[in-house]
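Request: Show me your protein:
***
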Amino acid sequence: MKIVNLDGCTTNPGDLSWEGIEKLGEYTVYDRTSPDEIIKRAKGANILLVNKTVITADILDALKPELEYIGLQSTGYNVVDCAHARDLGITVCNIPSYSTKAVAQLVFAYILQITNEVSLHSDAVKNGEWTACPDFCFWKKPLTELEGKVIGIIGFGSIGQRVARLANAFDMKVIAYNPRPKDYKETPVEFVTLDELLSTSDIITCHCPLTPDTENLINGETISKMKDGSIFINTSRGPVVKQQALADALNSGKLLAAGLDVLETEPPKADNPLLSAKNCYITPHIAWAAKETRERLISILEDNLLNYLNGTPKNVVN
């Protein structure tokens, strides 16, 4: 059994072990793979493991008949032509719900950073402003309590539900929009229309998948419906947001701030308007990157592969 991992670096840059997968066959792992290296490296593989490397129909054709299984190191599976893989008899499996807690944690890292202005005041102290202050305390921007604030959650899958639970712990009012009704009773949540969510939320956080319906969902028109001075957060997919429209809203003061872990193109181009937008906090797609989270990912990756080899495939997406 020949197993090839084309995208090992981000999942495991050296602080974790591939031991479980190594026991299953002849295992070769590459840190990253450019498009022109895919076929050469993957040729002859029975099992292919990928994260962001795009596997097109032409590549799938070139890797048959040996290739029989593709294991994604991610929840999203749009990088693989799943329909063509199915036609060729290639099973594709993803890693669902492994990063739910970590992503929700980052959402509140943004919220607390923005409402408490932690880095601003820490920098001020280190720059000597507290030492020179005549009073025992000072603040450079208004600070905000979360109790009673309305948080609007777009997309109410496992991550959206986790965010709702954390928001309830802060005594926030939670509203949510989901295209399909949810029978959810774990914590207090009011389901509303998208327009109502946009117009009444103090904080809006996106947790929807990238589909034709959600691409550029956050655009000039939808932003215009948001409350003045509200906060926007996106940890879902970059193309959900029209970047120039969000940058314009931040620079004009329509929105107070934004927290983004994903962008339309990653890494971003130097001229991305959000890189210079006011009060825009951007992290390099790290919501999933805690060591514990990646350990869970590798464990599910191994389990998916074992189940496939045992004839009981799980988390199949095609």
About this structure: The first strand starts at residue 2 and ends at 5.
